[in-house]
Amino acid sequence: MSPGSSAESYPAFAPIGARGLKLLSLNVPPTADIFQPVTMSCEYDLEGGNLYSVKWYKDDCEFFRFMPDYEPKSQAFHTPGISLDLQKSDINRVTLINLHFNTSGNYKCEVSTEAPNFVTVAQSSNMTVMVDQGEWIRGQNVNCHGDAIRTQELQR
């Protein structure tokens, strides 16, 4: 496992899983360019089980849920720092747009199978939003309050 990533409730070996469900990979880039969308992916093997849900969290706050047996199948939840491209978010991936510095955080994918057991596996990894080298921030006043960073203007 890479630094900043963790598995919940299961030994640290790959693939992460429980009987009937394995989380094969979680792709969260360690850094993201504030001016570019970022796609994260979560690959799993149901091993013959039926999918109940795939949920995505930022810093333990759920921001996206996919449930194939419900309408609508996809649901987004308001989370500070998160703007989703719902057209590019589905059963295996989420795409974040309009990144901000507070988009940085710990991202977790949680996959569950249906009743009666509701077997669940999860893995998380950190991502930091940065301004790419060659970009610059205009303005002398950069105010920090908690996780929020405000600037006068970002230039490309």
Structural class: mainly beta
**Element pattern in H and E:** EEEEEEEEEEEEEEE
Per DSSP E runs of 2 or more residues, the count of β-strands stands at 15
Report the average pLDDT across residues: 81
Query: What sort of overall outline do the alpha carbons produce when their principal axes are compared?
Result: globular
Please tally the helical runs, counting DSSP H or I stretches of 4 or more residues.
0
- Uncertain parts: 5-14, 136-153
Largest sheet, described in full?
A: 7 strands, mixed
Give the radius of gyration: 17 Å
> Proportion of β residues?
over 45%
Helicity, in percent?
Answer: under 10%
Distance from N terminus to C terminus (CA atoms, Å) equals 34 Å
Description:
By secondary structure, this protein is mainly β. Helices cover 0% and strands 49% of the residues. The protein contains no helices and 15 strands. β10 and β11 form a beta hairpin. The chain is globular and about 45 Å long. The two termini are 34 Å apart. About 18% of the residues have low confidence.
Topology of helices and strands:
Layout: E1 6-7, E2 16-18, E3 21-27, E4 31-33, E5 38-45, E6 51-58, E7 61-66, E8 74-76, E9 93-96, E10 105-113, E11 120-130, E12 136-138, E13 143-145, E14 148-150, E15 153-155
Parallel strand pairs: 4-11
Antiparallel strand pairs: 1-11, 2-3, 3-5, 5-9, 6-7, 6-10, 7-8, 10-11, 12-15, 13-14
